[in-house]
């Protein structure tokens, strides 16, 4: 589903943040992405979401060489990917319900067709009673769960989650991890970036570790 061959990335004239990164991600797989702060986890996620292009090497996503994609093709591929950004990126003028519905509205779906589904996912992440409030009044953990619900609503084949448990207490972090594991069981590949070793220890999964710009895979 994903293949990186000798991928390197530098920002502008800076040093290479990622060097000779080679790995693959299989359909229906679950993996953690870890490494110290500043190691390049978010950078790797941005390469996978096609919001950055590599400075060298080859990235294949869903069988396509990403360097050959035009903007329309990028949009089509992105619909197959759900992403939870580290900074949530909720729209403050839309309610939680409207934020989570947004990917479906963009696809041209009518509100009555998805009302039940959005409500269900909001209950699933524990935001059933926060549906109609605006993001500025949500706590950090509630915003994070809203961002997760929005990433999941389009039933992505591949979920990228950047520190999705960074703002919640350990109990909620465990619950969210279970949610990602359930999602994986229903067929979505998951890449979950985290610093939290205690969280990773709760689920036996492949670990991708970035250190000094290189990526090491522990199966
Ligand atoms: N837009 C940018 N321009 C220049 N340098 C950048 C940019 N974004 C990130 N970097 C640098 O690239 C390196 C990797 O950053 P990145 O955000 O990918 O790390 P990270 O592993 O996600 O860190 P954290 O765990 O703290 O979120 C850092 O040295 C960072 O300063």
TrEMBL record:
The keyword Transport applies. One of its GO terms (molecular function) is ATP binding. It is a peripheral membrane protein. Residues 2-219 form the ABC transporter domain. PROSITE patterns: ABC_TRANSPORTER_1, ABC_TRANSPORTER_2. Pfam families: ABC_tran (PF00005). It is found in: Cell inner membrane; Cell membrane. Its main location: membrane. GO terms for biological process: cell division. GO terms for cellular component: plasma membrane. Keywords: ATP-binding, Cell cycle, Cell division, Cell membrane, Membrane, Nucleotide-binding, Transport. Homodimer. Forms a membrane-associated complex with FtsX. NCBIfam families: FtsE (TIGR02673). Part of the ABC transporter FtsEX involved in cellular division. Important for assembly or stability of the septal ring. Belongs to the ABC transporter superfamily. This is Cell division ATP-binding protein FtsE. It comes from Aquabacter spiritensis. The gene is ftsE.
